[in-house]
Structure formats: C-alpha cells, structure tokens
Amino acid sequence: MAEVAKAYPINLSVDYPDKKMNRITTFLRLLVVIPILIILGLIAGGLVFVPTVLMLLFLQKYPRWWFDWNLALTKFGTRVLAYLALLRDEYPSTDDERLYHIEISYPKAEEELHRWLPLVKWLLAIPHYILLSLLAIAALVAVIIAWFAILFTGRYPKALFNFVEGVFRWALRVVAYAFLLATDRYPPFGLSA
Q: How confident is the model over 139-168, as pLDDT tens digits?
C-alpha cells in the first residue's frame, strides 16, 4: 500500500518546525488567524470547478490558467489551515510556499482524464468524505493536545504532527481528485506520503 501511495500523483508535506515554537502566537492562534481567514473566505468561492467539468465534458480540455488558479488557491488554503492547525509558526503567506510542499501535476486532459468521469468523481469520493470526517475530529483532538504541548514545552509532538499532516495529505488527494479534477486515479486510503 505504501508504494501505491508514493506513486500517487498528488502529495503534500509540511516542514516540521525544528525550533521551539512561539507560545504567545500559539496561545492566541484563534485570534491571530482571523485576518487571513477572512482573505481566504473572500476568495475561496473562486475555485473553478463547474466550468472545468463542462470544459472536460465537451472539449476534453483543462485550460492551464484555470488549473494554475485552482492550484494556487488550494496551496493558499492549505497554508492557512496548516497554520490554524499549529503545524507552523510562520504566518501564512499568500505566495511563499517554501515550508509547504504540495505536488499536483497539470493533467494532460486528452490523455489522462476521462471525459465523463468528472460528473461522478465527487460521488465516488463519498467513502473518503466519511472517513475524513472522522479523521478531522481526531485531528482536532490532536491539535488541541499539541496546543497544550506547545504551550508547556514549545514543541509540537512529532507523532501528532505526522498524524495531522497525514490527514491534510489525504484530504488534499481527495480534493484534487474530486474537485480540482487533476487526476482520474482514485485516492488511496491512508495517511502516508
């Protein structure tokens, strides 16, 4: 199963903070994140999904700039949510990606994407939605435990970090499959890279 996950065309990793984390911004994270959450909220509805489905359905094309927009929006959203999950101390940038490694290749629509599959991908991903809902609850508990750990020790426990990062990775793969339409390969069930 690990080999299948490594070969999957979508991946995410976040650099583990190798220094003590800021206890003050960790303590106030829910307040500090509000401005960037507002910005994300204002542009999050800009995901080009329905037009992409129609373009793939009728012309079997995925315009590069639509993909680039969707990818940039996905990367920005991931940085904001990772900051909220305490994975990094640095305030999420709108364009600096050096601590977050998201790999989603531009698909060659005519060769790699089935014309009719975008109509049902969101439906085929239902088992993932169910499992990710449960994992999101577990990740929230892990983040709360990590919050206390950071306040007392200044460090994010590595096991909790890996778990939360794995949930993010799994969710990204499902989003890239069902909504970004970046691949027709069904996402693997698992947290591994």
A: 999 999 999 999 999 999 999 999 999 999
DSSP code for 45: T
Name the E strands within the chain.
10-14, 100-104
Ramachandran region of residue 55, left (φ > 0), alpha (ψ -120 to 50) or beta? alpha
User: Is the Cβ–Cβ distance between 79 and 97 less than 8 Å?
Assistant: yes
What is the residue type of 73?
L
* Inter-residue contact 6 to 185 (CB < 8 Å): no
Unique residue bearing structure tokens 């065309």: 9
DSSP string across 7-41: HSSEEEEE----S---HHHHHTHHHHTHHHHHHHH
Q: Quote the Cα angle for 180-12-105, to 5°.
A: 45
Tokens of 64: 């590069």
Q: 168 burial class (0-12, 13-18, 19+ CB within 10 angstroms)?
A: buried
How does pLDDT run across 23-73, given as a tens digit for each residue?
Answer: 999 999 999 999 999 999 998 777 888 888 899 989 889 999 999 999 999
pTM of the model: 0.89
Contact indicator for 139, 163 with CB cutoff of 8 Å: yes
